[in-house]
Amino acid sequence: MSEESATWRSLLDARYWPQVVLLSLALWLHATNTMLTSTTLPSVVADIGGHRLLSWAFSLYLIGSVVSGTHMSLLVKRLGLRRTIIAAAFVYFMGCVLCAIAYNMPLFLFGRVVQGLGGGGLVALVYLSQHQFFPNNLIPRIIASNSVVWMAAAFSGPLIGGSFATYGMWRMAFLFFAVQALFFIWFASKKLKNKHNTTLEHTHRVSAINILVLSASIVFVAMAGNQSSGLMAVLLVCLGIASLFVFIQLDSRAGLGRMLPQHMLNIRNPVSSGLLMTLVYSAALMSFVVYGPVVLNNVYGLSPLATGFVLITESLAWSASAIIFAGKKQNAERRLILAGSAFVSLGICLQGVVVPDTNIALIVFVLVIACAGFGAFWGYLIRKVVDHADVQDHDRASSMLPVTQQIGFALGAAYAGLVANGLGYSAQSSVQDIQHIATGFFFAFIPFAIIGNIAAWFFVNGEKVTKPIQSGAT
């Protein structure tokens, strides 16, 4: 298929539509369920108790998601793509069932871990499989299509969860998604061809120590966001970042059993700089997600529903931009990536100026600038990262993109809590205090914008670094 013929209509071709539906369902199961918990957890706590463990419902899901995401490329090599997708969906199904039947908070949290393992695996497989399902010139349109699914999840997740919780049926919300997981398993078993079961002759084990170090880094960052002590939060964030660097170093020595692509600490390599862009910009966008509702509710007097609609503009801007720019030719990618990165950074920098004391329309405009910039280059970043990875690292690079996003979200949320606490925010803060804190809070995310722009420059100007893997590495 030529670049000119890569149209939206191409996705409806008999060769591609089953795969489009499959990837959309996989994203829907993960994204909508993540949003679902925000409206069901209060009912969960009221029913089975465990309010002190409430904050771990997200953290443990994230840990399971990241750990499974880093393993997807190796599991595909061992089981084949078709079996791995079905297995991930079954794990997700079991997690939903465990949450639905939980009689105490520890069992519910265990269900969240299992859900994370399945949901994170499904998302990683979306990024991994799209390069096997579709020709390269259709990838930006597939990414745009995926963005629309995320947008739909942002609208539907809280509504679905709130609807069940309102009538005292929070357990049915999880069973509702368990049924959808069963449908996904049936659809995948029918529509995926046997060729997607191809496996490699030789597979390599992942070091348990590497997994432990990676999990520890996520736990440290997740714990930092729940600390009332600023000093302890800083210490935990530092431990989390240090553990992540240790994991990267250990993984680089694991030979063919690696979870990450090569040269992850070499910013001149487009794979490394592309993942760094994903990490820091994902962290930066958490600034408004965490502190924006506080300002909108207390300073501007918006209701929770109206605040939700303001937050939805981020998803709308991302999705619309991804669709608009999906059809650009390959020779325009460099300018689009640099321009999109500049818009993301501009939006992040302007938040500290407009959010504390202007008007809602201007705040929405700034959010649109940042998220539209991200959506504009996202599909091309994914394609370029995978294209520049070594042949044996294509699957690793694909599966690491959603994992990197989730680590960025966790890091951004923890950093937001650290900054807000350090600036003196509390439930008793006055309107004037919140406005004053907001200025310093949003300015504190500007370093992420600077790092993102530097990474973007290296991303479009860097050169692929090649180095043979020693067959005897362990």
What does this structure look like?
By secondary structure, the chain is mainly alpha-helical. It has 3 domains: 16-205, MFS general substrate transporter like domains (Growth Hormone, Chain: A), CATH 1.20.1250.20; 207-253; 266-462, MFS general substrate transporter like domains (Growth Hormone, Chain: A). It is 74% helix and 0% strand. The chain has 16 helices and no strands. It has helices at residues 17-48, 56-69, 72-79, 81-101, 105-133, 139-166, 170-191, 208-224, 230-252, 270-298, 304-324, 333-354, 360-388, 394-422, 431-443, 446-461. The chain is globular and about 60 Å long. The two termini are 41 Å apart. Residues 199-203 and 466-474 have low confidence and may be disordered.
Keywords:
mainly alpha, 474 residues, Growth Hormone, Chain: A, 3 domains
Instruction: Report how far apart the termini are.
Output: 41 Å
Quickly name the level 1 CATH class of the largest domain.
Mainly Alpha
Percent of residues in helices comes to over 70%
| CATH architecture descriptor text of the largest domain | Up-down Bundle
Task: Furnish the topology, listing elements before pairings.
Elements: H1 17-48, H2 56-69, H3 72-79, H4 81-101, H5 105-133, H6 139-166, H7 170-191, H8 208-224, H9 230-252, H10 270-298, H11 304-324, H12 333-354, H13 360-388, H14 394-422, H15 431-443, H16 446-461
Helix pairs in contact: 1-5, 1-6, 1-7, 2-5, 2-8, 2-14, 3-4, 4-5, 4-7, 5-14, 6-7, 6-11, 6-13, 8-9, 8-14, 9-14, 10-11, 10-12, 10-13, 10-14, 10-15, 10-16, 11-13, 12-13, 12-15, 12-16, 13-14
